[in-house]
Specification:
The protein has about 350 residues and is of the alpha/beta class. The chain is built from eleven helices and 15 strands. The strands form two sheets. It has a nine-stranded mixed β-sheet with strand order 14-13-12-11-7-10-9-8-15. The structure holds nicotinamide-adenine-dinucleotide. The site of nicotinamide-adenine-dinucleotide has 23 residues, from helix 2.
């Protein structure tokens, strides 16, 4: 098989097209940077219609609405929820404000997509999942890294058996993140795992499933601006000797930034880079290469990545929610599934505090 024949199957697996009959009119809560740079450009490119927006900062909402062609700016959340033209609500606010918005939206009977982290703690997550189940409302979580092309292509290669049985997965990220763009994060008691590694954890779960035990060390750079941990070393242990490791540092002062991932298997390996993290939030496409004894490849075969994490991957969680709303079933990042990602986050913080490995319990 030629490279183009091999990659045609993977390209079909990573396609994020939303069928016209699944599209619903969206109302957005929050008009911050991520909505401006990622949610709205991604939805426009996918043919999804955003009909209304609300933010506590009315000027910000009006500015974003004007630039993205959104017809209605609602001054309150209840006005947004009473608006019959809004069929699905997309929430992207500071994490601690999200649960109250979810409770009100579920009470209004509207399906919704929430930003990650879904909730500040696992118990609140469980409560919201139960509320939504009782109301017959779908909640999905915006864990979009599992849909970004490099990770989605790697998952497709693993599922096709091209590296045999997966044995290990790793993310190694060493970057300089300017956390001052999120003033609320500077003061947060939790940082790296809750807001950044959570993407890697969810991506690993989408490929390897749920680990049994974890260990995590979290640290800070003396003099750093954020209050909480900015360097973490996490180990995830699976049955049968499978493992995953995350080594992440946001306080690189030397300029040699890197963001790499790798999956090893019994018959091959996949290696790549996370383009977004070399130039946030503009980024560049990822790189992905496959070494396979199954196909086989002649050494490392590059996969032609054409899309970026921001904005392209942001279609994924919304597409999954819309498919679940239209056809039933669960979205890939349904809130009930996301409890397992939150449980991993909780276990890693428990390990950081106790300095002992922790069992993961959703
Ligand atoms: N890749 C990703 O998935 C990604 C990247 C960045 C941020 N985020 C998440 O998205 C969320 C927003 O991040 P951001 O970068 O846009 O932050 P931001 O600070 O730029 O914007 C947040 C906005 O929310 C508004 N807001 C706060 N509380 C509100 C409330 N109760 N009702 C209505 N509006 C409210 C604020 O006025 C502000 O405009 C956060 O949860 C963050 O963790 C995710």
């Amino acid at each position: 098989m030629s490279g183009s024949e091999i990659w045609a199957d993977v390209a079909a697996d990573v396609d994020l097209t939303v069928a016209p009959e699944q599209r619903r009119r969206i109302g957005v809560v929050g008009a911050g940077a991520i909505v401006d740079n990622a949610h709205l450009p991604a939805y426009a490119a996918a043919g999804l219609e955003v009909v209304a927006i609300h933010d506590l900062d009315a000027d910000r909402a009006a500015d974003v609405a004007a630039r993205h062609g959104i017809a209605t700016v609602h001054s309150t959340l209840s006005a947004m929820l009473d608006d019959p033209s809004v069929e699905v609500v997309d929430v992207a606010v500071v994490a601690h404000a999200q649960p109250d918005i979810v409770r009100a939206t579920v009470a209004a009977g509207k399906h919704l997509l929430c930003q990650k982290p879904f909730t500040p703690d696992l118990q609140t997550g469980r409560e919201l999942v139960e509320l939504a189940r009782a109301a017959g409302v779908h909640i999905a979580v915006n864990q979009q890294m599992r849909f970004e092309e490099g990770i989605a292509a790697a998952r497709s290669m693993v599922e096709r058996g091209w590296i045999g049985e997966p044995t290990a997965m790793e993310f190694r990220t060493n970057i300089a993140t300017d956390f001052s763009q999120w003033p609320w994060l500077l003061a947060s008691e939790r940082l790296e795992v809750s807001y950044h590694s959570i993407h890697y954890l969810d991506s690993i779960r989408s490929i390897l499933g749920d680990p049994e035990r974890v260990f995590c060390h979290g640290g800070r750079r003396p003099g750093q601006a954020p209050r909480a941990e900015t360097r973490t070393m996490s180990t995830l242990v699976y049955p049968d000797g499978v493992g995953a490791v995350l080594h992440v540092n946001h306080e690189n002062i030397a300029g040699d930034v890197r963001a790499e991932f790798r999956i090893d298997g019994s018959e091959g390996s996949i290696r790549g880079t996370i383009g977004l993290l070399y130039d946030y939030p503009h980024g560049r496409p990822d790189t992905v290469e496959l070494f396979s004894r199954v196909l086989p490849t002649d050494g490392w075969l590059p996969y032609p990545v054409t899309r970026r994490w921001i904005p392209d991957a942001f279609v994924g969680p919304m597409a999954g929610l819309l498919a679940a709303v239209a056809e039933g079933g669960e979205a890939p990042t349904a809130a009930a599934d996301n409890l397992h990602t939150l449980a991993l986050v909780e276990a890693l913080y428990a390990s950081m505090q106790t300095r002992e490995a922790q069992k993961v319990e959703a």
